[in-house]
Amino acid sequence: EGEEGGAVCSLIELFHSTTSVLLRHEVAYALGQMQAASAIEFLNELLCDSQEDPVVRHEAAEALGAIGTSACEPLLRAHVADCHSEVAETCELALARLEHHAALANAGAKGPCACEKLPQRIVALEAAAEATSPGTTLSLAEQLALLDESADSTAPTACELPTESPDVASRAAGIRMDTLAGFDQEVAAYASVDPAPAASGSLPELRTMVLDRSLPMFDRYGAMFALRDKAARGEEREDAVLALCKALDDHDSTDSSLFKHEVAFVLGQLEDAASVPALCRAVRNEREHGMVRHEAAEALGAIGCETAMQLLSEYATHTEAILRDSCVVALHMYDREAFLAAGVVV
């Protein structure tokens, strides 16, 4: 806790030492990734400051959602009607994340072992599978099939599992509630604290969801992160990357800049050369929101191919500060990685 407090103080000092929107929003992002509850007051001050750049305020709201304590809920709710769409949408998304996690917690909380909240047959069969083959779980299809059937009143509940196997009982009592709620419980491919859990579904289903502007933002984000994780695991990687590129390439002015900037961020995590054309188009689009263009520039820096470097050099003197600074940082990071790869300490 002492180390976290020192880091929070250092980041806040860094924030106040610069006027760069890029760096200030990165400070807010870092505080959210740390899930530092001690930063809540500072982040709320940023969110409430109407003179602060909306990109920084959006990042403060996302950080509050990542921290996710009960104290964050009213702070976020106060700004769901903010005049800046990127701030309002971030608050809505963060609140949906808090509600999702609260629902999962409540689903496993009723009764000493959550028996009243779980299908008895799944509990019993999971326990039996564990006893015969440790680590075995029912597939999602098997779970859903059981949910469609009437509960077997004779099946043992988690309360009735053998007392000599407390680990089996506790695991059965809390089985994969996230998956049952429609979200994928695969271990995330990245360590980032994401604004929404990855959704479950086939690639065609996820592609449809990510492009459907009528869906709640939380659902579209879930589809986006699911496509990212599929690609990272090598599951239909090319198709998953191209689905994300199509979402970024959507030039309909009604689509969310918040959503598109997160798509660019995800493409940067994947570092797939197939996304370079779409990312370049986003950077070049003068009608695109600065937060989208900056995130696309950073993604190009992560990929680091010749085409990406040429475009970053071209836009490193752009008039829009957050885009310009992102290009400069990406170029410096690429040079640093090249030096390190050559064994030169920088």
TrEMBL record:
A Pfam family this chain is assigned to: HEAT_2
Coiled-coil spans in chain: none
Molecular function per GO: oxidoreductase activity
Record-linked Gene3D superfamilies: Leucine-rich Repeat Variant (1.25.10.10)
PANTHER family: DEOXYHYPUSINE HYDROXYLASE, PBS LYASE HEAT-LIKE PROTEIN
Name of this chain's protein: Deoxyhypusine monooxygenase
Organism listed in the record: Coccolithus braarudii
